[in-house]
Design a protein that fits this description.
With 152 residues, the chain is α+β, with helices and mostly antiparallel strands. Helix content is 19%, strand content 42%.
C-alpha cells in the first residue's frame, strides 16, 4: 500500500541585524551547509511558535516572529521530499551564550547578503537565497494571514 503524499512543513527565521543575517552552518548528508535557522513543524504547534522555537534551538537567540516573508514550495531534485516553507522575520531578543545548539548545528554566524549569495553552492536548498532576496525586496505579510486553531 502506498503512503499518501504530503509535504514536509518547515519554518525559517530571517533575522537581520545591522545588515547581517543570522545563519546556521549545519551537518547534512551532503556535508556542511548553510541555512536560516529552520526546522519542522511539530504536531499541535503553531507556525509562529515553531519558528521561535527553532531559532532558539539552533542559534541560542530568542526570536519573536512579527511578519511572514513568504511561503515556498520546493520539491527536492531527488523527488523524495517536497518542502513547504513558511519564512518569518521579526524581533531579535536575548542571546543565551551558554545554551547548547541543536544536534547537527556546527555554529550560528552573522553573514552579509553578499556573503550569503557568494556561498550559494553551500546552501541547504535554493530557498535560502530566495528568502533573503524576498526580504531585501521588502516582501512582508501580516501574521494575520495565518490562522492557527488549537493551542497557541
Amino acid at each position: 500500500m502506498n503512503t499518501p503524499w504530503k509535504p514536509n512543513v518547515t519554518v525559517a527565521a530571517l533575522i537581520e541585524r545591522e545588515g547581517r543575517f543570522l545563519m546556521v552552518e549545519e551537518e547534512t548528508p551532503d556535508g556542511l551547509r548553510f541555512n536560516q535557522p529552520a526546522g519542522h513543524l511539530d504536531e499541535g504547534e503553531s507556525l509562529i511558535a515553531a519558528c521561535a522555537r527553532e531559532a532558539l534551538e539552533e542559534t541560542a537567540w530568542h526570536f519573536t516572529p512579527t511578519q511572514l516573508v513568504g511561503i515556498y514550495q520546493w520539491p527536492r531534485p531527488q523527488g523524495d521530499i517536497t518542502y513547504l516553507r513558511f519564512a518569518f522575520t521579526g524581533i531579535l531578543g536575548a542571546h543565551e551564550a551558554q545554551r547548547p545548539l541543536d544536534t547537527g548545528i556546527v555554529r550560528a554566524v552573522w553573514l552579509t547578503p553578499e556573503e550569503i549569495q557568494a556561498c550559494q553552492n553551500r546552501h541547504r536548498s535554493p530557498l535560502i537565497w530566495q528568502c533573503v532576496s524576498d526580504y531585501l525586496a521588502g516582501q512582508r505579510f501580516p501574521l494575520s494571514v495565518i490562522r492557527h486553531y488549537g493551542k497557541p
